[in-house]
Amino acid sequence: MKKVKGNWLKVCLVLVVAAGVSGCGSIAQNNDVGPVHTGLGGRASVAEVSEVEITQTGPALAKEDQRVIGTSCRNKMWDPEPSRENALNLMKQQAKARGYNAVHSVQVYNDPAALVKNCWSALIATGIAYKK
Known about the structure:
The chain has a single domain, classed as Translation Initiation Factor IF3, CATH 3.30.110. The radius of gyration is 19 Å and the shape is elongated. It is α+β, with helices and mostly antiparallel strands and 132 residues long. It has helices at residues 2-22, 84-97; strands at residues 53-54, 67-74, 102-110, 121-130. A four-stranded mixed sheet has the order 1-3-4-2, covered by helices on one side.
């Protein structure tokens, strides 16, 4: 009986460690949490992308690759709340990486599926990128 009990404890310990390691980062698209995030020291702000401007209007027709997204995620319980600024800056970084210098039709909203993406809460910024 002791041998079975000892094996059960080992299995439980392995499962707890595996669950803890698998939840290190977020799977949200273009997010401000790295693949291995301990939460120690807090989350840094995402750098401002001054080369990309947010505009009220832009070209009416958009291709699928012009849609840009940024997600600010609260991955650990002790992380700060998601920030609108981080979500917008991540969205602008994606636009810049794709060669665009402006974004229109910008929306920022709470992610209703945050828990599925390994975030306690998340803000998503979306828009349509284009060249001015």
